[in-house]
Amino acid sequence: MKKAYKIIFMGTPPFAVPAFRALHASDHDIAMVVTQPDRPKGRGRKVSAPAIKTAAQELGYRVIQPASIKTKDFNDTIAQHRPHFLVVIAYGRILPEDLIALPRYGTINVHASLLPKYRGPAPIQWSVINGEKETGVCTQLMEKELDTGDLLLSAREPINPDDTAGDLHDRLAEKGATVLIDTLKGLAAKTIQPVSQDHSLATYAPMLTKDDGLINWNQPAESLECFIRGVTPWPGAYTFLEGKRLKIFRSQPVGTETSDPPGTILKGFPDELRIATARGALMIKEIQSASGKRLPIKDFLRGHPILPGSVLG
């Protein structure tokens, strides 16, 4: 059977894997896979392959990992395949304009938001942090500026009250795979026409760093609960007690009225931990010490009692 489009796939993290596998299962021809170089990861700093490299090699594809994509040699490598499309999903670098223009029909990007909202590298985390009730995934025709290209197809996804960024990531990755395949079908059938974004509605989702997981108790409890979910699993929400790091995984806002300064441990039942915030209190449900395991709060407090009046920060 004749393949519909010849595609070069560019992606790196686990988010891109479902779409890559969907392309593999389709009638499109993946001519080559481009991903980031292997890099050290984790506490042991062991050099690890990107998720896309692992998936591509399992399926028998040629994988290249250029140190730079801004070279004539790289452009020549892409051009020799004469692709119909580049498909780019969380590759991790901004593509130069001449590379974007190489494919016959354009470069398609799958983005984990409903553009123009949440342009940038961390749309999933920021949609949860900001307390959004809905997000989604879309395809766009890439251009020089980041996430400003014409829109092709989108699909909405509710954000559940207990969703972490990790939960939402996994659902959007699967939805992105469906949207990508539907986009290619629509382009082939000429049922999809690119639509310009309304740039006046654009918002930005900047990259998060490890330091961005530090909890600022001078926020309302509802906002802090969203923040904790939004930075889970990475960079992870954390605070300090007497210089020792505590990682917070799950919490619940409670309507406790208090005049104690934000970050103060409030009096409560022996098996609960309530913390004063700028408005209301936050009840911690799951926690981990620097050297311990992730535990329900009642189990944690049995071995690590925390006195009321102690201050986190």
Topology summary:
Layout: E1 6-11, H1 17-25, E2 29-34, E3 39-41, E4 46-48, H2 51-58, E5 63-64, H3 72-79, E6 85-89, H4 97-100, E7 106-111, H5 123-129, E8 134-141, E9 151-158, H6 165-189, H7 221-230, E10 237-241, E11 244-254, E12 265-266, E13 273-276, E14 281-289, E15 295-296, H8 297-303
Parallel strand pairs: 1-2, 1-6, 2-5, 6-7
Antiparallel strand pairs: 3-4, 7-8, 8-9, 10-11, 11-14, 12-13, 13-14, 14-15
Structure explained in plain terms:
By secondary structure, this protein is of the alpha/beta class. The chain folds into two domains: 6-201, Formyl transferase, N-terminal domain (Rossmann fold); 210-303, Roll (Methionyl-tRNA Fmet Formyltransferase, Chain A, domain 2). It has eight helices and 15 strands. The protein has helices at 17-25, 51-58, 72-79, 97-100, 123-129, 165-189, 221-230, 297-303, and strands at 6-11, 29-34, 39-41, 46-48, 63-64, 85-89, 106-111, 134-141, 151-158, 237-241, 244-254, 265-266, 273-276, 281-289, 295-296. A seven-stranded mixed sheet has the order 5-2-1-6-7-8-9. Strands 10, 11, 12, 13, 14 and 15 form a six-stranded antiparallel sheet that branches. A two-stranded antiparallel sheet has the order 3-4. A hairpin with a 5-residue loop joins strand 14 (281-289) and strand 15 (295-296). Helix 1 (17-25) packs parallel to helix 6. It is elongated and about 70 Å long.
